[in-house]
Model the fold of this input.
Amino acid sequence: MDAAGYTALTRQSGLMREMRVVANNIANISTTGFRREGVVFEEYITGGKDGPSLSMATGDARVIDLSQAGLSQTGGAFDFAIQGEGFFQVETQDGPRLTRAGSFTPSATGELVTNDGYRLLDEGGAPVFIPPTSGQIAVAQDGTISADGAPLAKIGLWQAGDPLTLKHQAGTLFSANAVVPAEGAKVMQGYLEDSNVNPVQEIARMIEVQRAYELGQSFMDQEDKRMRGVIDTLGR
Done:
């Protein structure tokens, strides 16, 4: 394969990754707390100076859109949404993870857990515990949970110390090398945050990526025919 073929192949590979990311965004339009992703293309150049150079495009890096999504009122006592920057922290089998999905329920032992059974953590990293005999539950905007006016715990709100280390793990879960308290974030009780995916923009992007991929495939097909023609001519 010549230089043009390698260049086109790396571009096609990146476009395939971007198509999968866009498709995943569209599939999660209605997922509570979902954060859309995008693919970052970068140019890789080899050679140069006194000799010929080869430029290739790679699409290996992903960027997470952390923009605020809309809030839907549910009225649930254990439905929480974050207004502003920050994440809830939950305990998983792989360690603490960050999430914006704030739908929790009390477990049989009184701990607040997600639909997957992950325990919500407080500002000290301990599970949030609600005694089964607690009365009316109220949550202040700073995350303080009270029962009949008596404080029980304070929900931890966190963000990545270095935003570039934030990585999408699965579903609505994220990991980061280190987390720090989220400044200025507010907890809204009785609300859930929607997905921040814009369906119109994502579908338009999917069409754009598909057309770019088809154009690249057409170029590779033409290059293949050209090389076959050269081989046939030289083989006579």
